[in-house]
Amino acid sequence: MAEVLMPIPAPGQTEAEARDEAYLRILAQRPNLSTDATRLFDLADVTCRGFVTGGTGEDVAADLLDRGLSGADASFVAALATYAYCPLFFEDVVYL
Q: So what's the pLDDT on residue 54?
């Protein structure tokens, strides 16, 4: 998963764009997840906001489950989203 945190941008591409592209590409490999980028970025936002506002890993998982993800997909999305977008909370997800 190291490519998500420090992807190499293509010519003319920002680091943020490269990170977003890697996030979507990795999630696309999960057959049960939507391929709708807006929804996938929303899930990342829900994950990071949950931690930033003081929520626990269990709180974040519950929010993702409420949005229709299975337990395995919720854990995967939470791990990938924190790794890519709010790495200070990655350790909180590892133990879900």
A: 93
